[in-house]
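Why does this matter for the project? Reviewers at the last site visit asked to see concrete outputs rather than summary tables. In response, this paragraph embeds two records directly. Each consists of the residue sequence and, immediately after it, the corresponding structure tokens. Nothing has been edited or filtered.
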Amino acid sequence: MNLPNKLTLLRVILVPVFMVFAAYGRIGTAAYNPTAHLLAGIVFAVASFTDFLDGYLARKYHLVTDFGKFMDPLADKMLTTAAFIYMLVDGLCSPVVLAVIMFREFAVAGVRMIAAGSGTVIAANMWGKVKTVLQMLTVLFYYFVPFFMGATDIMAFGLITQVLCWLVALVTVISGCIYLWQNRRCFMQAK
């Protein structure tokens, strides 16, 4: 197993670690734990950096594998979906946004499974990468900004977080539509 694939597996392992800290963060509640909230953000940042690093190393050193093409986007989905679930639980992300994210991921996974049935591995496209980066930036904002803001900034923080979540939903829809259109031949082959 090459280094980029090991970094992808590290990101998968970091997902439950992130979830533990996020579960104890609970911003916006009486049980808010700023240290756990910040630690969740740090773990998320480290995991997000492995996303950049594994892709960079795989391309630079020609270490792109079918395993990486499959697991890298899956690891991203696990990480960002978990983060948006916690944002929903904390009341700062609309259920509609989470539903849009989940519908897109299920649709893309379905296309990938159909393609895999014919021996084809479909890598993420540029719009999927833009979506992932925007999701990660939104989550990083959510976990890091509260640590540095005052009590009077909480309303602005909530509003900005919600706007970012809706922007994520918009880009998610766009990227999903483009992905499905670019891979529509998979549907024709599935008949």
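We now turn to the second protein, recorded in exactly the same manner.
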Amino acid sequence: MTTHSAGTGRITGQTAEGIAGSIRQLVDRGILAPGDALPPVRTLAADLGVHRNTVVSAYRTLTSVGVAVTRGRGGTSVADPTPVAEEGGSGDTRYTDVASGNPGVRWLPDAATVADVAAGTARTTDGPVLYGTGTVDPALRDVAERWIAADRPWPFTLHVTGGAVDAVERLLAQELSRGDAVALEDPCFLTSVNTVRLAGYRTVPVPVDAEGMTPAGLRAALAAGVRAVVCTPRAHNPTGASLTAPRAAELRRILADHPWVLVIEDDHFSLLSAQPYRPVIGAGQQRWALVRSVSKFLGPDLRLAVVACDDRTAGRLGARLSPGTTWVSHLLQRTAAGLLTDAGVRARMSAAREHYARQNRAFVQLLAGRGVTASAGDGLNVWVRTGGDARAVARRLADRGWLVRPGGEFALTPGTAAGHLRVTVHDLDAAAASALADDIAAAAGG
């Protein structure tokens, strides 16, 4: 077999997977370092005795998993393993953190309420849960099936996972192999980007506008051969966009020609949303899943999401949620069920829905009065147009004591959202909100 030198190592392989694997080994061993150029496609193909498309495919796989970067005529080189941005607060007390994307603590059930509900469920439990017990607790099943059936009146099978991220990761894993293509919104929820890259899937960006995922982008992704589509039907993070009825109907028509593509709806804001649920999953879709997490209204630490899906997907997902090893704690499930049906908690959720929407609208109006365009949309965040390089604006805001999210952190395609900021303002009082609006206007103008 012909080989190609790379530093003091050799690139080998006769298939795209083999070539990519060889390069990854050289990177893992430190023989190829960040910034090192990989051989030109034609050169490596000739040396290995393979078609140039084989090398192109290998490089594409390496790029999709973050091992390599391609710069057009600048060639392909080993990527710098810079950590990808993560959701959550910074913990740095030097700044006022409006970058976290967290729900407001006062709108979540307090510790005493959670403890009381958990104790109540424990008193009604018929002994310990043992290996082999069904993975979905009857109490949560009853609540979740009514919750899902109100929006999806046709048959589904229910599973419970350790949160929405866990659900999406397991759903993709039961359908895709390394290198397979998956359609993600662009800009995209940070954790979805990380999930896909770490698993080695190839991302196909689908642009998002004020009405949600775009039809042209979805058509292009399906034409590119994606095997799965992940869509946020409402409260898209970071933009706040929700699908309109006409847009959802158009997306369903497009997907109707691809019934075996797995369509995952991440309805993360469900019970807090000011918008109705408008599905992209049509009645004829053969592979689908609707994921609803409880983290935004019961708390991020209550690691739980319910997943409704078709029978085939449910069977494969169930194999990854074994009643012997990897099920979600029944105590946790019963506590979630108790909280979801508690009158006081439901009242607090209703108040939170109104608070988030009111605070976001008010902040958009503050910015408008200062000549800055922003969108409240739906969800926990405000999407701010800076009119220039948002990273530079973010640096200026840091100098003024504010921590914000540049829109480029959510981008799959370079340049997407580069002129936007995402800010989480629902915990700011009137004086702080006014000060932030002043500083954003000044930083953007500067």
